[in-house]
Specification:
The protein is of the alpha/beta class and 171 residues long. It is built from 3 helices and 6 strands.
């Protein structure tokens, strides 16, 4: 019986070494740390960059095997920039008050390793551009107590989730 246990231990250690289990199998191996600098924001709503940075850090820590670090010499760097935000009226009341609106945020993202190799790939349209443009719309209804701030926060959280999803290894 002892021989069987020893043989099983040797086979178990050598046969499964290259495999990853759990959510680690979804992400590129050999990466331990990600540096996420404060997201640049070129819009008039300057709080969006900080909100996106916080949401990205939360998503990376929650969904990936990576550790977010403040060290710019981390294994990889995820750079983002908020390049646009809009709000448009979808429907109005008979008195011309907005009834339903859309809030939208556009973000450019780039994930590279220390040598500058692009790790974030556009799975739909491969390009030579080092950044990928993400856009997210959220509908809100002021009459129901919703505000542009809550819609923008939801858009930011959805964007962070989508950006982290793009960090997964392609099949």
């Amino acid at each position: 019986m002892l021989g069987f246990v020893a043989l099983f231990g040797v086979v178990g250690q050598s046969g499964c070494a290259p495999y990853q289990f759990g959510n680690a199998a979804l992400f590129p191996p050999g990466i331990r740390t990600v540096h996420v600098p404060i997201v640049r924001d070129t819009t008039f709503r300057h709080d969006l960059g900080v909100q996106l940075t916080e949401a990205l850090v939360r998503e990376i820590e929650l969904r990936t095997p990576y550790k977010v670090t403040a060290d710019p010499m981390a294994d990889t760097i995820l750079r983002c920039e908020v390049v646009g935000e809009t709000k448009r009226v979808l429907t109005e009341t008979t008195e011309d008050y907005p009834r339903a609106l859309d809030a939208a945020v556009q973000v450019r993202a780039s994930w590279t390793n220390r040598s500058g190799q692009l790790l974030l790939n556009n799975s739909i349209v491969p390009t030579d551009d080092l950044t990928i443009l993400f856009s997210q719309d959220e509908r809100f209804v002021p009459e129901a107590g919703q505000s542009v701030d809550t819609a923008m926060q939801q858009a930011i959280e959805d964007l962070a989730s989508r950006i982290v999803s793009q960090m997964e290894t392609r099949w």
